[in-house]
Amino acid sequence: MSVSNAKRTVGIPLPMPYGWYHVAFSKDIGPGESKPVFYFDQDLVIFRTESGEAKVVDAYCPHMGAHLGYGIREQMGKGAKVIGDSIACPFHGWQFNGEGQCTHIPYATNMPPKVARGEAVLKAWRVREMNGSIIVWYHPHDIEPLFEPELVPELAENPDDWAEPIIHEWEIGTHMQEMGENAVDPAHFMYVHGTNDIPDAEELSFDGHTRRGFLKTRQPTPRGEIEGSIENENIGPGLSVVRFKGLIETILVATVSPVTSEITRAHYAFYQRREDVDGPIGKMGRALIANIHQQMEEDRVIWDRKKYYERPLLCDGDGPFAKFRRWYGQFLVE
């Protein structure tokens, strides 16, 4: 998978933050399937074992360097073959499990020493699967996870109450921190998105690897103005849940993942209650999602082109950028 054609005229001097990151939607990889992806400035392969477990490994076979994400012969145009719990290299048929061990060399009689000892010979990534996403842990020093991702309780406890999500994705030419700062920038809503006023920030808190915010909103409708709210929560820099209330209850599972330090991929999955989607207010629900999509397109115009200032010139009406950057800074490791 190639990275975006997005090019920056001015670089952003920030490393990729560590954390848990979406690399694929669960629905896109069935049992026995594999898929190449590019994140963290490197090639990876996702595969799902025949028993249904999602695995992520480095893309290149340690034998002769073939890419494990592209199949040949009957697999042409698809990912490499998955046999049981292992992915098979298309070049010589070596098989590797999700822990990076070589499980089979079809033509060898004497195994290489590392293989014979059961050692990992291919980097395996730490994987969690929840909230409709396959998620991996990234840290530049490859240390054990410092925190865990969290389930969205409404979706986990009563999944049948929610309609199939509406998904939108973007590739944006900026560092993830630049996008994250929108969460503490209520003033931009009026000028970038054309709202009638600046939303009221009722709450903003930072606690370890999490950040929470609560905004009151006023939403115009043909029947007059309706008061609503936007509650947002970050679990590390890459995972967030946004709850919209007012016109129609909507849960947005918003994940952002670093393609490189200056290219970010955003994946938005919108969930609305099945009874609302199929009922008379379904049109309002679709309009809300379309509006958020439009806001992302408007933000993208700024993000793709803005310059990063370590010490921006701020005024008293601006949001708490300094607090946000102190919180975010814990994830930035050279």
From TrEMBL:
Its main location: membrane. One of its GO terms (biological process) is cholesterol metabolic process. GO terms for molecular function: 2 iron, 2 sulfur cluster binding; cholesterol 7-desaturase [NAD(P)H] activity; metal ion binding. Belongs to the cholesterol 7-desaturase family. It catalyses: cholesterol + NADH + O2 + H(+) = 7-dehydrocholesterol + NAD(+) + 2 H2O; cholesterol + NADPH + O2 + H(+) = 7-dehydrocholesterol + NADP(+) + 2 H2O. Keywords: 2Fe-2S, Iron, Iron-sulfur, Membrane, Metal-binding, Oxidoreductase, Transmembrane, Transmembrane helix. Its cofactor is Fe cation. Gene3D superfamilies: Naphthalene 1,2-dioxygenase Alpha Subunit, Chain A, domain 1 (3.90.380.10), Rieske [2Fe-2S] iron-sulphur domain (2.102.10.10). Pathway: Hormone biosynthesis; Steroid hormone biosynthesis; dafachronic acid biosynthesis. The keyword rRNA processing does not apply. It is found in: Membrane. GO terms for cellular component: cytoplasm; membrane. It holds the Pfam family KshA_C. PANTHER family: CHOLESTEROL 7-DESATURASE NVD, IRON-SULFUR DOMAIN CONTAINING PROTEIN. Residues 21-136 form the Rieske domain. It is an enzyme of class 1 (oxidoreductase). InterPro entries: Cholesterol_7-desaturase, KshA-like_C, Rieske_2Fe-2S, Rieske_2Fe-2S_sf. It comes from the Bacteria. Its EC number is 1.14.19.21. This is cholesterol 7-desaturase.
